[in-house]
Amino acid sequence: MNRFIVTNRNTDYLLPPSVDEWVPDNHLARFVVEVVDQLDLSALTGQYAGRGKAAHHPAILLGLMIYGYATGTFSSRKIERATYDSVAFRFIAANTHPDHDTLATFRRRFLSDIVNLFVQVLLLAKTMKLLNLGNVSLDGSKVKANASKHKALSYGRIGQLETQLAQEVKALMARAEAADQEPVSDGMDIPAEMARREDRLAALAKARAEIEARVAERDKNAQAEYEAKVAKRQVQRDAGKKPRGKEPKPPTTGPQAQDQINLTDEESRIMPVSGGGFEQCFNTQTSVDTDTLLIVATHVTQATNDKQQIEPALAQLAALPEALGDVKNLLTDAGFFSSANVKACIDQGITPLLAMKREHHRPDVFERFAPDQPAPINADPVTEMAYRLSTQAGRALYGLRKQTVETVFGIIKSVLGFRQFSLRGLKNVTGEWNLVALAWNIKRMNVLRMK
Q1: Of 41, 170, 229, 302, whose CB neighbour count within 10 A is largest?
Q2: Is the pLDDT of residue 190 over 80?
């Protein structure tokens, strides 16, 4: 008795096969196509001149990029291969096969338009009753740049290399002048060797100038911060109060020997990463709706910490369409806390819940259930926020932070596998992170709609 299903790879289809039948109704690939078909792509289609060979429609290429990033396939070569090997990719591509160069060019060319598409998807989520802004969690996460930290060059090392190369050029010139008396070694091309070193000296001079420009901006900010601290202490003295703490020290100005630039991606920075050590990274800032885990705003910075990222995040949230609703509470960890950041939130009509210090993972059980203390009267904004965080309602609301924005980062990095940018330069990686956020939102919307 034959217990196996009869198979024959040479059997022809009785009717032409339909790619539409290959994907289940609730499959993510089908949802990606449905979402892309509802987007206004006129900003993309309008950039095609209509000359030469017929191009793949932007809807096809965008759908492939979104599905690729939503399923952990980021390489344009792997996406091209998947249009042959994967039923889902073949469905999105409608049985066409855009090559990797077409996909890579599309990604680079339309990065700036992805921000508009990102907002369109949020509005679609609102229409589908999947999003209603209220509480937002903000956090930053370091993502590796498309550059090795071993390609970083310090200001001190630049000086050493310039001295060495200048001496080698001088020696080569002397050897060229003495070539008539002393034969040159076999295979040695003195003009080529000199040109190579002069090119390296020019590259080093450019790197030196870039570091000096960065340091000048850093010194300007450090001096402004120092003067603000001095002025604040003077106001306290004028009011008859003794300033607490040590006197602020003037900042050290000028390039330091350890100041670095990366020769592969000069806009990336050496940053401390979780788990210890340092990597060549960008700092991705992401605002997440606590109810749905949808990303509502993003930006990428070169700053190694999050202290100065509240105002850029507030600007992104303020730019969202009114139809999405209003952000009522902003939740962040202690890395964002400062009195200026608290005031910035209040000025925008948002209640800040910025942790003021690192909290214990397991607070005392009696502390957790202790009744709320009386609210302070005529308190400053920081004191009011501290009281709000100490209440049971405030603790419960702040507790949403870890299970929302950190969950999103964890899935993007560990499940989807997006741990390193494919592109280089701050503008390009900002666009790529927007593409990651767009893909995450569509993937998340597919889950929410089935609930």
Answers
A1: 41
A2: no
